[in-house]
Write a structure and sequence with these properties.
Length: 169
């Protein structure tokens, strides 16, 4: 397992852990594959930004995160009643609690982070579709590079915009 934080310099991608974490844990295999995807994307001015990896069990932060997921899922189902079937895909740990092979990444283009989900998982579908069209090239390149490196991109549209991916087994 590799532990990376914002000051990690032995890698070609950026690390910006999502609150409340200050480090991202991922498997050596996932790190190697992420490096491989980044090598392809550098030619296009794109940089992968690792935001989430393995979340260890039992920590106070993890318990609080679990509670926040339950609250978030409830609010999501109230606000987006028509999307309640997506709530489990969006609010489950999605493998982040099993191994360091599940990661979330974002994209920076020429040093500027792309805002893919301006309201996080509460971004409405119409806005997700607009952002997908606006960043079609960047997303297609990132998804393609990650898949070529051996990752599977999550099938849910919101999770795909978070670029949640898992090492293909």
């Amino acid at each position: 397992m590799k532990v990376l934080d914002r000051s990690s310099t032995s890698i070609s991608f950026l690390v910006k852990p999502r609150w409340p974490y200050d480090k991202v844990l991922l498997s050596s295999d996932a790190c190697r594959r992420l490096e491989s995807a980044q090598a392809v994307l550098s030619a296009y001015g794109l940089t992968l930004v690792l935001t989430r990896g393995y979340e260890s069990r039992g920590s106070v932060i993890r318990i609080a995160h679990r509670l926040a997921r339950v609250v978030g899922m409830t609010v999501f189902c109230i606000v987006y009643l028509h999307r309640s079937s997506e709530s489990r895909a969006i609010f489950s740990p999605n493998g982040h609690d099993r191994s360091g092979d599940c990661i979330d990444v974002s994209i920076a283009y020429d040093g500027s982070a792309l805002t893919l989900l301006p309201f996080g998982v509460f971004t409405p579908l119409w806005l997700i579709k607009r952002i997908r069209r606006a960043y079609h090239r960047e997303l297609a390149l990132a998804w393609s590079a990650l898949e070529a490196a051996g990752f599977i991109i999550h099938g849910n549209v919101t999770e795909a915009m978070q670029i949640h991916c898992e090492v293909r087994s």
